[in-house]
Amino acid sequence: MTSAATPAPAYRRLSVEERRTQLLGVALSLFAHRAPEEVSLDDVAEAAGVSRPLVYRYFAGGKQELYEAALRSAAHELELCFAEPPVGPPTERLARVLDRYLAFVDGHDTGFSALLQGGSVAETSRTTAIVDEVRRAAAEQILLHLGVPDPGPRLRMMVRTWIAAVEAASLIWLDEGKQPHAAELRAWLVDHLVALLTATAASDEQTAGAAAALLARERREGPVGTLARGVLPVVSDAAHLL
After folding, report:
1. Which residue range or ranges hold the HTH tetR-type domain (predicted)?
2. Integer Cα distance of 30 and 113 in angstroms
3. Contacts of 193 by beta carbon, 8 Å cutoff, 6+ apart
4. pLDDT in tens, 99-122
């Protein structure tokens, strides 16, 4: 007796929200590894297994609307990288933030470069505003970890300068074939923030208070302790300048 064939699974029509989420996910994957101008709606439709008119149905503004929607989604994911519970030594929290950030950069290499370097035909005032919002959100998170909810101009500038340096280092890291190892780059970026904080503290009272509070919460075996032991032999050569 011949057994009955197993019926094929019934086709399930996606809801409007499910289809939009699917198309957005496909677009994010494409934009992550190719510059925006190199991705067409046909590419998105083919990767999603749908027709080009269907993509237009959900993104009537065409590729620009789809790119901006994908960018907002990526920006939200990037902002989440900076969210860290205020528990434990600040620089160890920062290390975890940077681990997530560099993992994001690693997973969105080409798209990340195109996004931050600008010059794309898809770049508009809206896309620039989305990127700037991520920078502001990152700066606010760093200031919260420093325990300064209402920073003055010097401290705010210092943090924003560090954010810009992190972006630049990330682009160079991608250009250099992701060398050095992400963990080494992360440690250097933490040291960079501590160095900026220390230098600014020398001439800004609010920053000096933030630096003192940070040092009080650090551990000897943590990033600041390691940095201090490495720097002392270097700065000792400047004793004749005191």
Report:
1. 17-77
2. 14
3. 91, 94, 142, 162
4. 999 999 998 887 777 667 654 556
